[in-house]
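Much of our argument rests on the idea that a fold can be written as discrete symbols. In the encoding step, the backbone of a single protein was reduced to a row of integers, each denoting a local shape. We regard such an encoding as a compact summary of how the chain folds. The record that follows shows the chain in one-letter code together with its fold in token form:
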Amino acid sequence: MSGFNSLEIGKRALLAQRFGLDVTSNNIANVNTPGYSRRTAILSESDSLKLNGHFMGTGVLVDKLQNFREDYIDKEIRNTNSRQQSYKSDVEYFQRIETILGEPTEKGINELTTEFLNKFNELSLKPENVPLRDHLIEFTKGMTERFNVIAGNMADLRAEAFKKIETTVTTANNLIQEIAKLNESISNSKISSSSEAQSMVDARETKLSDLSGFFDIKVTFTDNGSSNVFLNGINLITESVYSNLELRESVNPASGERTAEIVTYDKSNNITNTLQPQAGSVYSLLNQYNENLDDVDSSGNFSTSKGFHSFVNALVQNVNEIAVTGFGLDDNGATAPARAFFEPSVGNANGFNIRIADDIINNPRNVPLSSFEKTPGNSDIAKAIARLATDTTFLNGFTPSGYLASFIGKVGNLSKEALNGNSTTGLIADQLQSQRESIIGVNLDEEAINLIKYQKAFEASSRIVNMTSEILSTIINLGR
């Protein structure tokens, strides 16, 4: 009986050491596989057997396959990833906005506006000079066209942000479905074998990390190995059940303001939940679309697009308010012709619709520079427009240059904050990745030692089987 017991012990030992060799070999094979967590075979002594009044060992069994993944570090990596991706997106958009504004360059809006008002100062010295008037018109045409281009580029950038949100929502829905399917597979594997399928756990964590780049998700785990994913307390995934995300856009009928939002829709209860991420690339994109690049933004927060269009409107209104009281070189009558310098002369102007008035663009003599008719040497209107450069009531208590300096400075500060945030979260992410890699990463030196350990144990187990076989053969032969 003891001989057969030894043979069983040897068999179990062979199987256990072979399993250990397979696990170690798999670790070595996946040393460069992204997201792979190293595994180890947990062995335990099998139940003892009472024989001749004594408890005898019956060998070894594979208890479970264990990986070294740490949920806390995974959570911190997901949180950091959310913040980093939102900063990355902000960096991209603010840098592109700075390029669109062209600051600080000769084609920047501050330089153009300053030069525009200087042209009136030059004309105040020679208001009757038609070539100087024509030069003012040509310069202003270039300035207004530049404003049109800036407005168009900002609108294009905003449309691109909306398109990116659409694409991201589609990708996020695919990830959500895949995570739910992995939850089901992991749960089934744990029920059938009391051990989770580690490859599926690694795959799920990779997808959770990818999803965290879009939203600041919160993840919890159940006893059956499934994960639950929340955003703003709203369930996106509950084990194998998931919700699809939808991108919706609403329009304010009064102002025309368009607002994008991400929602989940529960058909069974007819309930729509609006998601409000606080980090992640979608958070950044929503802020860019709904606020920073919205020319009619009503949030009260800083908006580059609204700030730019507000400046253009202030320039048009202030210049026109003075220009309509002036006379051109050929105007007659005691009453000024109320000739506006810019269009639109009525209503709000913006970067899209600003242009030189038709009465002026083709006739430089019509530029209203004088406060009296038939006085070509009078330049009161030109001087008044030039003095707008020092008018602290131009817009929000600033002069034109002061407002633009503050406005452009704010854009620059937001860009710098995004750069600093991206750099800081990048360093934190690298530290967390290094920390996680030290725990779950494959160390080839350690695996080489394990390989030798299991190999030697396997060889020794083989000797047990061989020796037991010889003993049993001898006993059988004795009975012949």
Summary: The longest helix spans residues 130-193. The two ends are 19 Å apart (CA to CA).
